[in-house]
Design brief:
Layout (H helix, E strand, L loop, with lengths): L9 H8 L8 E2 L5 H11 L11 E7 L2 H15 L4 H13 L2 E8 L9 H21 L3 E5 L7 H7 L4 E12 L22
Antiparallel strand pairs: 1-5, 2-3, 3-5, 4-5
Bound molecules: flavin mononucleotide (FMN).
The site of flavin mononucleotide has 10 residues, from strand 4 and strand 5.
Length: 195
């Protein structure tokens, strides 16, 4: 076998160990400015046809979390939730030390790169961002919900033409993540093509 010895490959071990950790299991600290930049740099290594960079990230931290909480509460009430439900959503907005909004900026009329390829890049960027956080000892989870389509929420995050994918909640895992849900086996997604 050429390439690195897989059993000694710490990067691969790290990739295989990442799993999402929900907001109730995230504590301080979250990634600092340098670590967030490293995560953005990792996101920028996603395969990107024609170098369109069809994504950007917006960091919500510190006092800005209170504004996010107000927005989430408004979206919850407009979706028909009662005061308790709105308060719960507001609390969720403030729970993670750092929240990173993920924006897709797609060029639907690009002559060379169809939109599905641009979405593939956005997904790669998100995954690299999560893996970089994991590599630095943080954990998190990508979250969305109907509120991504709420007009006030969209207005708060999106520039014209952008799509709000959701938010990555980030922090330090309160305990070592338990082995999560079982993943499908590699054989389920990997096969030879007979030609
Ligand atoms: C764009 C996007 C939005 C998501 N939104 C939610 C969500 O709102 N709620 C949720 O529980 N999981 C959501 N997920 C899934 C979780 O982020 C996570 O991937 C899933 O729970 C599987 O966990 P794993 O990453 O450990 O495999 C979303 C994933 C993606 C890619």
């Amino acid at each position: 076998m050429s390439g690195h010895d897989l059993t000694q490959n710490s990067v691969l071990a790290l990739l295989l160990a990442r799993q999402s950790v929900g907001i109730k299991h995230l504590t301080e600290p979250g990634p600092d400015a340098t670590q967030l930049r490293a995560m953005a740099d990792a996101a920028l290594r996603a395969p990107d046809h024609a170098g369109l960079v069809p994504f950007r990230f917006v960091v919500v931290q510190g006092a800005a979390r209170e504004r996010l909480a107000l927005l989430f509460a408004q979206a919850a009430r407009d979706a028909g939730k009662d005061d308790a439900g709105a308060a719960l959503d507001a609390e969720r907005a403030q729970r993670a030390p750092v929240t990173v909004a993920v924006l897709a900026r797609l060029d639907a009329g690009h002559p060379q790169v169809p939109v599905h390829e641009q979405w593939a890049c956005v997904g790669g960027a998100l995954t690299n961002l999560l893996n970089a956080a994991h590599a630095m000892g943080f954990a998190g989870k990508m979250l969305s919900g109907a509120k991504v389509r709420h007009p006030a929420v969209q207005q708060a995050f999106c520039r014209p033409g952008e799509t709000l994918l959701g938010w990555v909640a980030l922090g330090t895992p309160a305990k070592s993540p338990q082995r999560g849900h079982d993943k499908p086996r590699a054989a389920d997604v990997l096969s030879d093509w007979g030609g």
